[in-house]
């Protein structure tokens, strides 16, 4: 999926012929089948993810504080706060909400990769994401989301993200492009 505009929340979107549109007809995203997502970020235990989350840079300053996934100012969001580990990757604990669908997993795979690039002096937005989902997490389960920067060139960065279930089994993985912007 390639985002063309920020997707409106709590708004039904339509998908026709690979185009995602808002009710007013605005093109929000395009969807196509891409190369398979084969890369993963290694799992870490829940307690390591919890410790990393306590160091989440977004608590000190967040370019999008109301982000549904990682915004600390968003009380109804997913509450995924990816903190950096010593190797530059990110880890976040995530307690899955009572209702979970594929779109929730796609969202959960978004920001943990982005925070390998984002920082106090660098704002970025998701440009493109491809996801391979093995299975949905169970509501209420304690999962870990991992992110890793693969490469950066100019304003674009390629990241990988992996979602693990309570038993450490991989549930989903993503490859995403993040683009640096000026706020």
TrEMBL record:
Superkingdom of the organism of origin: Bacteria
InterPro entries: HotDog_dom_sf (IPR029069)
Name of the molecule in the record: Uncharacterized protein
Originating organism: Virgisporangium aliadipatigenens
Higher taxonomy: Bacteria, Bacillati, Actinomycetota, Actinomycetes, Micromonosporales
């Amino acid at each position: 999926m390639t985002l063309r505009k920020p997707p409106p929340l709590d708004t039904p979107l339509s998908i026709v012929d690979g185009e995602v549109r808002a009710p007013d007809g605005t093109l929000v995203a395009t969807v196509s089948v891409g190369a398979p997502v084969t890369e993963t970020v290694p799992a870490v235990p829940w307690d390591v993810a919890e410790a990393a989350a306590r160091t989440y840079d977004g608590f000190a300053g967040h370019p999008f504080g109301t982000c549904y996934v990682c915004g600390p100012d968003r009380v109804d969001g997913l509450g995924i706060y990816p903190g950096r580990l010593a190797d530059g990757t990110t880890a976040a604990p995530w307690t899955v909400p009572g209702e979970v669908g594929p779109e929730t997993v796609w969202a959960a795979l978004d920001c943990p990769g982005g925070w390998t690039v984002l920082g106090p002096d660098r704002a970025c937005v998701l440009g493109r994401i491809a996801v391979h989902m093995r299975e949905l997490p169970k509501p209420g389960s304690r999962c870990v989301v991992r992110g890793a920067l693969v490469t950066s060139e100019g304003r674009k960065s390629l990241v990988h993200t992996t979602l693990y279930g309570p038993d450490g089994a991989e549930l989903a993985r993503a490859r995403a492009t993040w683009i640096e912007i000026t706020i």
